[in-house]
Design brief:
single chain; 425 residues; alpha/beta; Rossmann fold; 2 domains; 16 helices; globular; binds nicotinamide-adenine-dinucleotide
């Protein structure tokens, strides 16, 4: 098939390279010229395992020219951002702008299918996107063009794997013809394909993320209790997770969830519920508890070393989770801000995310590796469970001024390192 992928970020570029690998003709569209240039040079603008290799092997093209992309495609995928507004509600400006641009170009085309992969609150396809497309094109959805809402469930750090091995594919179809086209495109993937309404598809994405965020928050709540009891939450949650009604996934206590999806999606669902006259009490509390959880590591640090004024704190791990360079709503950013407010000096190390963090904090010392970051430090906070931190040995910490090591994620191996503690263990 001839495909245009609009928005070449984590979702768009992964979608593009994976579909190109299936033999489709793929054109990436982005408004960011630098990104387009990089993709055309086969350089990945983001870090994601195997993405560079997929890009190098593919024959996909990138452009800023939506006219060209739509002239040369029969289906487009909308993969633009849906960030939060100040009040937590979803900001649909990118989606609206793209809908206008697509709508204008639909006027001269035969039947064309628009697939929305961006995460959008329930009702957006029917109440916002389709009316814009119809207004701009003067055409009728379901007759002259088709619309599907196809939520993306990939995890950053495993994006290629998840795209190619999905648990399920959800096709929210406004019209059967476009649903059939998308079902055909996805028929190579070995998983259930659920065809449903656009609203059900939209909500299924939010409900999934909200449940996962709630599981983490629940584990943190039990973890905070464990800390008071002097026990390890991981011993408790291992037992809980063995119950197959629960599953052991997403029960890892620590400094809480971050990233470009969970925080904004839970907030957007709370805001959308409010608009519809429903108070999402559990999810509101998930957001509040998650914010508080990040600061527990700072409280624990102060309990150990007192005032942070002038103290050197080594931070290991900046990305919101391992195997990504993404720092959007990463706990590390809030924690560093708080440490700086309290007068601490920071030396930080992350295998992939330092370039992104440099755009926020330029007054931090960025180290070449974990060992360099630890030199002469008054304390060390571990904020991301990168594999390379699992290999740290006791003597890697010997250059610290004070041996205070606090984990915000469970990562160190107690057989290799002595004298450390976690925020919930
Ligand atoms: P991103 O910020 O990594 O990429 C978005 C890209 O869209 C950027 O390159 C930007 O320049 C481009 N863009 C913006 N406006 C454009 C326009 N008018 N035309 C063309 N390109 C435009 O975003 P992302 O993380 O890939 O997320 C995209 C959507 O997918 C969001 O709704 C997000 O919630 C959802 N989602 C993300 C993930 C994830 O893990 N990142 C997972 C599932 C769903």
């Amino acid at each position: 098939m001839k495909l245009a992928i609009i928005g070449s970020g984590y979702v768009g570029l992964v979608t593009a390279t994976c579909l190109a690998k299936q033999g489709h003709d793929v054109i990436c569209v982005d408004i960011d010229e630098k990104r387009v240039e990089m993709i055309n040079k086969k350089e990945s603008p983001i870090f994601e395992p195997r993405l560079k290799e997929y890009l190098e092997e593919s024959n996909l093209k990138a452009t800023v020219d939506l006219d060209y992309a739509m002239e040369n495609s029969d289906v487009c995928f909308v993969c633009v951002p849906t960030p939060s507004n100040e009040d937590g509600s979803v900001n649909l400006d990118y989606v609206k702008n793209v809908s206008i641009a697509i709508g204008e170009r639909l006027a001269n085309k035969g039947y064309y299918t628009i697939v929305v992969k961006s995460t959008i609150v329930p009702g957006t396809s029917d109440e916002t996107i389709i009316p814009i497309l119809e207004r701009e094109s003067g055409k009728k959805a379901g007759e002259d063009f088709g619309v599907c809402m196809n939520p993306e469930f990939l995890r950053e750090g495993h994006a290629i794997h998840d795209f190619e091995n999905p648990n399920r594919i959800v096709i929210g179809e406004h019209d059967k013809r476009s649903g059939d086209i998308l079902a055909e495109l996805y028929s190579v993937y070995n998983c259930p394909i659920i065809r449903t309404s656009t609203k059900t598809a939209e909500l299924s994405k939010y409900a999934s993320n909200a449940l996962l965020a709630t599981k983490i928050t629940f584990a943190n709540e039990i973890g905070n209790l464990c800390k008071k009891l002097g026990i390890d939450v991981y011993d408790v949650m291992k037992i809980v997770g063995m119950d197959n009604r629960v599953s052991e996934k997403f029960l890892n206590a620590g400094i809480g969830f971050g990233g470009s999806c969970f925080p904004k999606d839970v907030a957007a669902l709370v805001a959308r519920s409010k608009e519809l006259g429903h108070e999402a009490k559990v999810l509101s509390q998930v957001i509040n508890s998650n914010k508080e959880q990040r600061m527990k590591i700072v409280e624990l640090l102060e309990n150990k070393i007192g005032s942070l004024e002038g103290k050197k704190i080594a931070i290991l791990g900046l990305s919101f989770k391992p195997d990504t360079d993404d720092i959007r709503d990463a706990p590390s950013v809030d924690i560093i801000k708080k440490l700086q407010e309290k007068g601490a000096k920071i030396s930080a190390y992350d295998p992939k995310a330092m370039d992104n963090v440099k755009k926020i904090f330029n007054e931090i010392d960025y180290a070449q590796n974990a060992q360099n970051a630890l030199e002469e430090a008054d304390a060390c906070l571990i904020l991301t469970e990168w594999n390379e931190f699992k290999d740290l040995k006791d003597n890697d910490f010997n250059s610290m001024k004070n041996r205070i090591i606090i984990e915000g994620r469970k990562v160190l191996n107690p057989e290799n390192v002595k004298d450390f503690e976690g925020i919930c263990w």
